[in-house]
């Protein structure tokens, strides 16, 4: 976070700053002439912070459509939990501790989670950054404490922890959980003084880096087709210790169980339908047991794409009708597409087998039927699978992460 003084941030909420905020509306940090004009009346820190605030508020609208934060900066918005997931987490915590429960929101940032928690129960926001602490207090209307998460000692029921995963000075993301703030290995000591807790993780985290898997519940959450977050639920907040959970928002669907591999197709090929499991379902390892309920099989072990003859009536899967399967030869595939009245072509692949963007331009034609072509490695050979989308909802083969977890 920029080293702007807390006094300047507080000043921006005073009536004295109204003229500056009105004059700075719509001005970006790169518009030097406009900024120079503002600095004739206000100092550089006031002008820079006002532009930062206005830009962050604009970005916050997409992430917090119902209850946007009043004070925030761009970095804080990027790292904050989207409102939809914050509401889901707060509801789940509330089910356990009730309206009289007390939650410590550790490493609270700008208060993205605290805002949802505070609408249901008592919250104390904890952060080592005094500005971020103050922001949480303003945005969530809760009490705050400017202390380290690992040393916070208070009579609360459960905790929520969102470790810092980037260097605030450089913006560089920390890939190793041991370099997070606080480090992920410290959650054992943090959780020792609480009945339960939940830790926000990046959805791409290596499972070997996640502690306490045998006694905690690891959850992956998607918003639509985008894998957004992972959560480690512990203690009293754990409904299924040692198991995995997949949650799909805004549908409110959730699956919990033990990961298992999908049953393999006896002929190692695709039937009439190709089905993509939602990334939260696949990442949790539950696409096998859930797919079996719909009689879906996996053509190749580890492919992560299922097949069957009947479309699964579930938002957990996006289905495509298979028209043809052939060895991957660009010219052969292009000829087939032209001969079969193809218009726009969408390319899906795994493991960067091909460049989807380049191929979409080369293979799209002027016909009337839009198609999705899957270019997949089926063991050694690479095959092209010509399909037509059955579902209207967008789906993505590759997991997508929120801004702080890419």
How would you describe this structure to a colleague?
With 406 residues, the chain is of the alpha/beta class. The protein is 28% helix and 23% strand. It has helices spanning 6-11, 18-24, 32-39, 44-63, 74-79, 83-97, 112-118, 130-140, 187-191, 279-283, 287-293, 330-339, 356-363; strands at residues 102-106, 122-126, 143-145, 158-161, 196-201, 217-223, 226-235, 244-249, 253-257, 273-277, 306-308, 317-327, 342-349, 369-377, 382-389. α6 packs across α7. It is globular, with a radius of gyration of 24 Å. The model is unreliable at 392-403 (pLDDT under 50).
Brief account:
This protein has 406 residues and is of the alpha/beta class.
How are the elements arranged and paired?
Elements: H1 6-11, H2 18-24, H3 32-39, H4 44-63, H5 74-79, H6 83-97, E1 102-106, H7 112-118, E2 122-126, H8 130-140, E3 143-145, E4 158-161, H9 187-191, E5 196-201, E6 217-223, E7 226-235, E8 244-249, E9 253-257, E10 273-277, H10 279-283, H11 287-293, E11 306-308, E12 317-327, H12 330-339, E13 342-349, H13 356-363, E14 369-377, E15 382-389
Helix pairs in contact: 6-7
Biggest pleated-sheet summary: 9 strands, mixed
Distance between the termini: 19 Å
Q: What is Rg?
A: 24 Å
- Kindly state the percentage of residues in helix: 25-40%
Low-confidence stretches: 392-403
Keywords summarizing the entry:
Rossmann fold; globular; 9-stranded mixed β-sheet; 13 helices; 15 strands
